[in-house]
Amino acid sequence: MQKLDNQGFFKNLKYDFPAGIVVTLVAIPLCLGISLASGAPLFSGLVAGIIGGVIVALISGSALGVSGPAAGLAVIVFAAIEELGSFETFLLAVIVAGIVQIILGLFKAGIIAYFFPSSVIKGMLSGIGIVIFLKQIPHAFGYDSDPEGDLGFLQKDGQNTLSELTLIWDYFSAGPLIISFLSLIILIIWEQPSVKKYTFFKLIQGPLVVVILGIVLNLFFQNWDGLSLMASQVVVIPVANTFSEFIGQFASPDFTQLGNPRVYILGVTIAIVASLETLLCLEATDKLDPFKRIAPPNRELLAQGTGNLIAGFVGGLPLTQVIVRSSTNIQSGGRTRASSFFHGVLMLICVVLLPEVINLIPLASLAAILLVVGYKLASFSVIKQVYNMGRAEFIPFTITIFGIVFTDLLTGISIGLVIAIFHILWNNYKAAYFFDADSYVPGEPIKIQLSESVTFLNKAGISKALTELPDDSSVMIDASKTVSIHPDVIEIISNFEATAENRNISVKWTGLVQEKNINDQNNLFDTIKKQDTLIKSQDI
User: Fold this and answer.
1) Which of the listed CATH numbers 3.40.50.1010, 3.40.50.1370, 3.30.750.24, 3.60.10.10 matches domain 433-539?
2) For labelling, which of 202, 224, 255, 284 has a CA lying 20 to 30 Å from the CA of 425?
C-alpha cells in the first residue's frame, strides 16, 4: 500500500488536482444529463455539481466521495416539479430536504450505513459498472439519443439499455467512433505498468489526454464531410454572454408556498431517498478506497444536508454522494477530499469562463473514459471473490447486479437488500438448533442442541423440528450452551410438551448455563401453563 500524507489539505496536490480535472470533465455532462432527465433547467444540475464540490467536500469526512445531482433522484425530482407546479416551489422542498438531513445527522441516523450487507454493496458497484459500460457504448459510436446521466433500464426515448445497443449500427457516426477508438487505445496504454514508470505518465492523467485529443479531433473534423460532429455529440452547457445573463440563470425558491403541505412531504421524501443513496455510496466508496479509510456517516449527512440547503436557495438540484464520479475520482488517482473540492472549483471556472471550450468536448471522449471506469467496477476478480465466499454472499450479490441492470439503482439495491435479509432470516431459522441425523440411533433419545442465543426469529425452525419428531420417541432439549431464549420459543416448547403425551413422546429439558435462567424459565413455563388452564376453563 502506498504511503498517504495526511498533513494538510493540499499535501497530495500532485494526485488530487489531476483527478479533480478528470472528475470535472466527467461530471459536467452527467450534471446536464440528470437535469434533462429531471425536467429541470440545465443550469440547476451544474449548480448542484459545484456545490457538491466546493461546499460538501469541505464539510464531508469522506476522503474520496464526490457529490452532485444523482440519477437515482431524477424520477422523484421530475414528479415533484410536476406536482408542485413550478421549479421555484420545488426549491423549497430541496431546502426542507436539507434541513431534514441535517437533523438526521445530528441525531446520529447515519448508523444505518453499517447495516448494509457487504454483498449488496459489492453487487451495487458491479451493477453500476455494468450499467455504465452498457450505457456508454452508444455514445462511443456517436448515437446520443439517451442523455448522459440516465442509468435506468427504461429510457425516455422509448428504448431500454439493451435495445439501445441494437440501434447503434443504424445511427453510428464515423467521427465519434474514431475519437472513442483512439481514446480507448490511449487509456489502455496509460494503464500499462511498463508505461507508468515514466514521470510524464505519472503526472499527466490519461483521461486528460483523451479529452484534449477529442477537442483537437473535433476541430479537425469540422472541415470533413462525414466526420464532423453534430451538436448532440458534444457537451453543451449554457453560455452567458454577459454577467447579468449568468446571474439570471440562478433560480430562487418561491417562499409564498411555505404554507403548502406538499412541499414538506416531498422535502422529507427527497431527504430520505437522498440520505439512503448517500450512505450506500459512502459505504461503496470506502470499499474502493485503496487506503481503506472509513468515512463518518453522520458527518456525511450533515455535509449533504448543508449542500442541499444551499442548493435550494440558489436554484440547484438536490444532491447526494454519487458512485460514478467517486469511482472516477479513485481510478484517476485522487487521494483526499481536495480532489472533490478542485472538481467543484474547476466546474465553476468552466461554467463562468470556459463554456465555449467545454462545448468542444466530444461525448465519445467521455464515453471512452467511462467505459474504462465501468469495466474496472465490474471486474471479474470481484465476482470471483464473492463467488468463493459461498451462496449466502453470492446470491444477494448477483440479484443486486441484475436488479440494478434491469431496473434502476435504488430499486436494484432494494431487491438486493430484501434477498440479503431473507438469507439472514433463513440462516436464523436453521441455526437455532443442531441435530445430527447421522448419529441418531433408533430407540435412543433424540438430542436437540439449542444455540447460544435463541430469538423469536427461530420460532419457525424449532416448531418444525418438534413437529417432525417421530411418535413413540424420547427427546432431550439441551440448552447447556444457551444464554438467552425468547419467551415465544419457550412457549412453543411448552405447548409441545403439553401435547407430546398424545404421541407418546417424552420430553426433557436440561442444561441451562445459569441457574437464574432455569428458574426464570420454570416460572415462565408455570405462567404459560396457568394461562392455558384459564383459557380452557373459559372455553368450557
Assistant:
1) 3.30.750.24
2) 284
